[in-house]
Amino acid sequence: MREMIVKGIHVDDTFAEAFNMRATGVVITADSARWARQAAVTMTGFATSVIGCGCEAGIASELSPRETPDRRPGIRVLLFAVSTSELQKQLQNRVAQCVLTTSGSACYAGLQGEEVLKLGNALRFFGDGWQISKRFADKHFWRVPVMDGEFVCEASTGLTKVAVGGGNLLIMGRTPRTTLAAAEAAVSAIKRVPDVIMPFPGGIVRSGSKVGSKYKASASTNEAYCPTLRGAVKSALGPEIGSVLEIVIDGLTAKAVAAAMRAGLAAMIELGPKRGAVRIGAGNYGGKLGPHHFHLKDLLR
Amino acid sequence: MRPLVLILRTAPDARLDLSALVSHRLSGKTVAEIGKLELQTGRQRIAVSDIFRVRAGDPQHVRIEGGSDRFDQVGQDMAGGEIVVEGDVGNQAGRLMRSGRLLINGNAGRWAASGMRGGQVEIAGSAGDRLGGPLAGEMAGMRGGVVVVRGDVGERAGDRLRRGTVVVEGRAGAYAGSGMIAGTLIVRRAAGPLPGYLMRRGTLVLAGGCDEMSPTFLDCGVHGLVAMRLMAAFVADHSAVAASALRLPLRRLAGDMAVLGKGEVFCATA
Known about the structure:
The complex is a heterodimer.
Chain A: E1 3-6, E2 9-12, E3 15-29, H1 33-43, H2 50-53, E4 56-63, E5 74-81, H3 84-99, E6 106-109, E7 115-118, H4 120-123, E8 132-136, E9 139-146, E10 149-154, E11 156-173, H5 176-191, E12 196-197, E13 209-211, E14 219-221, E15 243-251, H6 254-271, E16 277-281, E17 292-295, H7 296-299
Helix pairs in contact in A: 1-3, 5-6
Chain B: E1 3-8, E2 16-17, H1 23-26, H2 31-36, E3 38-39, E4 46-47, H3 48-51, E5 52-55, E6 58-65, E7 71-72, E8 79-86, E9 99-104, E10 120-123, E11 143-149, E12 163-168, E13 184-187, E14 203-206, E15 218-223, H4 226-235, H5 240-246, E16 250-255, E17 263-268
Parallel strand pairs in B: 1-6, 2-7, 6-8, 8-9, 9-10, 10-11, 11-12, 12-13, 13-14, 14-17
Antiparallel strand pairs in B: 1-5, 3-4, 15-16, 16-17
């Protein structure tokens, strides 16, 4: 594979292959930033991959009280799925089980769109007839009595069908410590990019997969990137690589995913090969499956 | 662009229906044509030019300089644009309004914003009885939009309110929010006796308390609800003083149990 060398880091001449997804967003508020974050973390738990979790979800941004409908601290969460029906199901279940249950929380639309998903309109029945509908301007809210007061929830939230899932960066370093340092630097930079999430734990995945398996499984370990198998399989890793991590990025638009990948690349290059990655690549399926191709060389410009 | 200005020549001898002077009915007309528009009144035939001197301008922005409590139905059926009245208006100002903005820099008579469906009405002075309420025979009053009254209002403000928000920065007369079906009525200062009389649903906020509460409302305790903060954020765009009252803990009373009982009255805690 051809590669470029930027400030001592080898950057593969390859591309990340990404797919169209359905996405939605919610804004969760609470009396304190801590409890808003607690609700968001709980809601986005077990939402790393659509393959096993039904959706991919993560925290997109933290919001100051000035930016939220009820003027309390808030968190914006984005959810991605492969179909509208699955996204509706995941949204409803996760808000019902994780946000409604969090002390002092409220939930509002986190995305505007012509098409909408049910939010409070689905959860209001928890009120068992005591729920109260409220409309202010063009916004519709439900107030559901709960044991610590009321759960306020906007009736619906927006849906987008032009979201993109599967933007990625493969980070290769000499040791697990330096590889993780590079990945952490990239995650920090990508967190500042709006309208994207990194659904894996801490934004980083260490178990990159390939399609198929010798067993009855749809995906299995990507042995070409496992350093411990370097001598036993057709490896993609040179002798200097001792550890590989991946960052997966989902965004509301292809432009947002490109901006996130660009920010991640820049942060890792800034860190340099001694303290971070010695090589950066991206995962793809030959370009035949996903309509979005994010070439690393383009993102370096 | 400059507004279309109607300057009062002389106070009217009888009540006048000014519902013809809304943006969508004035669009495309010349000054002369506007001057010839007939205003409904008693047995006399009265044209706009008999009462107003017309100065050309954008009909989306109508300015009426000089008011009268005989000017009825100002802004009735408004479907957009803006009307500013420098003076008082009579009954049914903004009735059945759908969108746009009606600003009355004076007092308004009875049934202001009656049956309103959208848009914004602001009354800098006071308003008469049955603000937003239905006329006789109608099932519901206001059904959308925002009404702000900087002064006081008469009896039965928000009568049979169906949807929308009414903010009264001053006092309200007896039976505020009577027969409310839904929606929100906020009264900044004291309300008269029996607020929320026979209300079914909806929210009535009495930041200044009331003279006498009906025994058919049940005390649900003092709460600082997120919904009030949400309401405050929305109301702040229209009335800072009303918004500040919503940020305090308020006593919630459920009722009116004489009817459905799904409504609520929030009162300031003494």
